[in-house]
Amino acid sequence: MKEIDLWNNTKNIESTKKITVNLYCDEIKKTIHPITKEKWDFIGVLIVPKDIEEELLSDLLKARYFKEYSKDNKLDLLDKNSKYYKKNDRMVHFVDLCADTYYIAKRWHNYILHSDSINKIYFNILGINNAKLNAESFGNRGFPVVYNRFFRVAVVYPLLKYFSNYFININNIFHEVGSQQEDSVFPWHTIYKINTEGKWPIKCLNKEIQFLEKDHRKNKQVNFIQLIDIILGVTRNVFDNSTKDEFKIKLTEDFSGIVKRLIECPNNFNSNYCANYYKRMNISFFPKRKLDPKSEYYEIDKFINQFYKNRDMDFLTRHQQRLL
Questions:
Q1: CA–CA distances in Å: residue 160 to residues 21, 193, 221, 265
Q2: In a domain, 243, yes or no
Q3: What total number of domains does the chain contain?
Q4: How far apart are CA 69 and CA 244, in angstroms?
Q5: Is residue 211 within 8 Å of 176, Cβ to Cβ?
Q6: E strand spans, the chain
Q7: Full domain range(s) for residue 279
Q8: DSSP-H helix ranges across 7-113
Q9: Could you list the pLDDT tens digit for every one of the 324 residues in the chain?
Q10: Is residue 311 part of a domain?
Q11: What gap in Å lies between CA 112 and CA 60, rounded to an integer?
Q12: What is the pTM of this model?
């Protein structure tokens, strides 16, 4: 079987080597950079191999409910009537971060750096600069089509990057409930395109994206959505420095080490900070330069050179005066 990657390179792969994954997705839409005033969308995808999903969920719960993550933590011994349990059973979202949820998110950050997360934590963050796009090139529906096109790239690119030489079955794509649920195209479009175009060794096993409620107490899988929500929030803030909230600043400081490495040293296979991050985590942006309004850049594969990593990390230089 031949694989065509996003650079239109072709190579032979072993079709007998297979992996099945679930994808947990979230987004930040219509943000405005406080200095440049550019409008940005961010898409986050957490990739969870099916064969370790229960183990990863157990690890996240051990980090959520105990003062410190350990694989030896016993979830069945938790006192669900205790004040500590209730403090750590709150919904975790970057936008609503408070003291209790900050410490949950901080422990998840510590888990990401822990050796137990190797081969369990895979994610991709894509930032889209709408100021350098022209919605008219995407047809009458404008930016909803923009989001659909880039969502497909945000899904396909990390799968090919992290699981090269595999045939990849996407068991389910999960997304937090929101406006996309009501869109006439979004729930089925990415899945349809992946399955019908046949350009990649990827197959979606369901016809539509599944939407999950925000409350992990109703569905434990929502912990995965909450995790990618946190990663999205801190990533945006590293570049925008857009909050004065105490806990958002503290969490951004916690995550800034891994974000900085993913931008400045994305291919460091010798890192002792977070083992193998170069083949499990990615942050990128599009486009590097303003595109010609006449360009049919909805064929994103043709504009792979417009994806880039280096942006000013305003949070890390917030105590310095920025020159405009």
A1: 13, 16, 24, 20
A2: yes
A3: 1
A4: 29
A5: yes
A6: 2-4, 10-12, 18-32, 39-49, 122-129, 167-176, 202-204, 210-212, 281-286
A7: 21-306
A8: 53-65, 83-87, 99-113
A9: 554 455 444 555 555 699 999 999 999 988 999 999 999 999 999 999 999 999 999 999 999 999 999 999 999 999 999 999 999 999 999 999 999 999 999 999 999 999 999 999 999 999 999 888 876 665 555 556 777 888 999 999 999 999 999 999 999 999 998 888 888 889 999 999 999 988 899 999 999 999 999 999 999 999 999 999 999 999 999 999 999 999 999 999 999 999 999 999 999 999 999 999 999 999 999 999 887 655 544 555 666 788 999 999 999 998 875 544
A10: no
A11: 10
A12: 0.92
One-letter identity of residue 99: A
Identify the CA nearest to 224 among candidates 86, 92, 110, 84. Answer: 92
**Does some domain include residue 324?**
no
Query: Residue 239 in 3-state DSSP?
Result: helix
Which residue is listed with tokens 């975790």?
92
Phi first, then psi, for residue 273 (nearest 5°) are -75, -45
255 occurs within a structural domain = yes
Residue corresponding to tokens 């996003």: 6
Instruction: Choose among 26, 23, 42, 40: nearest CA to 155.
Output: 23
